[in-house]
Amino acid sequence: MHLLKYRVFHFIDNYNPQYLIKLNKNINLIYRNYKNKISINELIELKNFCKKNKYKIYLANNYKLAIKLRLNGVYLPSFNKDFVKIIHQKKNFDILGSAHNLKEIRIKEKQGVKYLFLSPIFKKNNKSLGIYKFMNLSQKTKLQIVALGGINNENIKLLKLIKLKNISSISYIKKLYE
Q1: pLDDT band (50, 70, 90) for residue 1
Q2: Integer CA distances (angstroms), 47 to 1, 25, 75, 104, 162, in order
Q3: Using CA atoms, how far apart are residues 98 and 116, in angstroms rounded to an integer?
Q4: Which of 64, 68, 69, 77 is nearest to 33 (CA)?
Q5: Residue whose C-alpha is closest to residue 168's, from 65, 93, 99
Q6: What is the pTM of this model?
Q7: CB burial class (10 A; 0-12, 13-18, 19+) of residue 145?
Q8: Got the DSSP string for 12-35?
Q9: What are the pLDDT digits (tens) for 4-16?
Q10: CA gap 119, 60 in Å, rounded
Q11: Strand, coil or helix: what is 1?
Q12: Are 121 and 148 in contact (CB under 8 A)?
């Protein structure tokens, strides 16, 4: 499968072990559910499942809970502009973050992000960076870049041309594994 060539991040919004067990072990999970209040019990079950099955798990937009539960890290969406120093003190704790423009990239750099999700790379809801703007923005930072948005079987081949090593998806990965 062509996904094996990439470090893959997959956004999930609930704990569904029947679905998750089908995923390749190189897929990193980001638990992101902005619609409902976080269920600590569900998150602990997810963490235990991930540990047992050797998946990495990141929590969106709640670094304190991610640290408390000893998850692999936190995902800071583009709207999170808080500067938190405690994150930098944790070992084996990665900070992921998303950005859509140069201003947001600079904020993510100050937040200590290791992986920067640039989005949307491909057309999604009539918005996209496109390959050229994506490449231009990615060259303005030393962070590890992750492509996000609109990735599918046809355009994933373009990512190989720009030598991208990291991708992220919601619907593309779901389609592959459902």
Answers
A1: very low
A2: 26, 15, 15, 29, 34
A3: 6
A4: 77
A5: 99
A6: 0.90
A7: buried
A8: ESS--HHHHTTS-TTEEEEE--SS
A9: 578 899 999 999 9
A10: 16
A11: coil
A12: yes
The pLDDT of residue 89 is 60
As given in the structure block, the two tokens for residue 153 are: 């079987």
Please give the Cα distance from 117 to 9 (Å, whole number).
10
Helix extents (H) in the chain: 17-20, 40-53, 63-68, 102-110, 130-138, 156-161, 171-177
φ/ψ (deg, to 5) at 171? -75, -35
Phi/psi at 109 (nearest 5 deg)? Answer: -60, -45
The pLDDT, as a whole number, for residue 142 is: 94
| Residue 162 to residue 159: CA distance in whole angstroms | 5
Query: Looking at the predicted structure, is the pLDDT value of residue 94 above 70?
Result: yes
The values of phi and psi at residue 170, to 5°, are -115, -70
Confidence of residue 73 (pLDDT cuts 50, 70, 90): very high
Chain-centroid distance of CA 63 in Å reads 14
The helix or strand, by DSSP H or E, that contains position 7, with its residue range, turns out to be strand 7-12
What does each C-alpha distance from 65 to 47, 69, 87 come to in angstroms?
A: 12, 6, 12
Q: How far is CA 88 from the centre of its chain?
A: 18
Instruction: Give the pLDDT score at 130.
Output: 83
